[in-house]
C-alpha cells in the first residue's frame, strides 16, 4: 500500500517515513508546487494500485482541500484503483446545517467532492458523525482516545477524566476506560443571560489530578473556565487535551496559564501538538 502526503501532512512526514515499513506501507514521492499565478500543481512520481492519501485541511483550508482533489485525480489518472483519504482535521465540518435560508450544508459539499475520487474516507473526531453519511463510500470517524490515554497515563496517575459538557462525555469515557479511571462531565446551568455555571457531576475532585477532554479548543474559554472551577474545588494537577487545536489568537497562552499542561493531537500542527496520531493513520 502506498502512502501519499499532501502539504497538510508535512508536519507528520518525518514520523510517517520512519514508521511506514512497520505497517507494510511505502511513501510515494509526490511533487507539489505552485504555479506563478497561485494555483497548485501536483504530480505523482510512482506506481501502484492502492493508496492512502493523508491531508489535513486546516488553514489555508481551501488550498488543502483543492490539493486533496488534485491528488485524487492524479492518482486515478496514474492507474490507482482504490484510494483512501485520511483527513485528520476536516475543514467545513462544523457547517452541518442551514441556519439562514440560502446557505449551503458545507460539509455535504466537501464530502460529495471527495467522493468523486476517494473510495474511503477517514477523519478524527468529526464535529457531527452523522455528516459522514454524505460521503458516498465508506466513511469512518476515528477516535484519538488511545493516543491521548498513552500520553497522559503516567502524568494522571490515579486521577479522573472529565468532559466539559454532557455531549462530550463519550470522549472522556473512552480515554478513562483505557486508563481504568473514573470519568464524569461538567453540568452547565445558565444562571443569567451572560453567565453559565459549570459543576462536575457526582465526582470528588479534591486532591485528584484531572484531565479534561474535548474535541476542539478554539478561544480556550471553555477549558479556562473548567480549569478555574477545578482549582477552586481543590483539584490536584489539571491537564487539558483536545483532538483539534483550532486555536484563536492568544488561546494557547490563555489556556497554558490556567492549567498544568495543555496538549492537542497533531491533526493540526501547533506548538502544543504533542500527541501523534501517525501510528493510527498507518494502521489504515
Ligand atoms: C463545542 O461544541 C466544542 O466541543 C468545544 O467545547 C468548543 O468549540 C470550544 O470552544 P472554545 O475553546 O472557544 O471555548
From TrEMBL:
| Annotated residues for binding of ATP | 37-39, 94-95
**In which residues is Mg(2+) 2 bound?**
165
- Pathway(s) this gene product operates in, as recorded in its UniProt entry: Metabolic intermediate biosynthesis; 5-phospho-alpha-D-ribose 1-diphosphate biosynthesis; 5-phospho-alpha-D-ribose 1-diphosphate from D-ribose 5-phosphate (route I): step 1/1
- Note whether Cytoplasm occurs among the keywords: yes
Cellular location of this protein?
A: Cytoplasm
Q: Where does D-ribose 5-phosphate bind?
A: 190, 214, 218-222
Q: One MF term in GO for this entry?
A: magnesium ion binding
Tell me the function of this protein: Involved in the biosynthesis of the central metabolite phospho-alpha-D-ribosyl-1-pyrophosphate (PRPP) via the transfer of pyrophosphoryl group from ATP to 1-hydroxyl of ribose-5-phosphate (Rib-5-P).
What does the similarity note say?
Belongs to the ribose-phosphate pyrophosphokinase family. Class III (archaeal) subfamily.
Its protein name is: Ribose-phosphate pyrophosphokinase
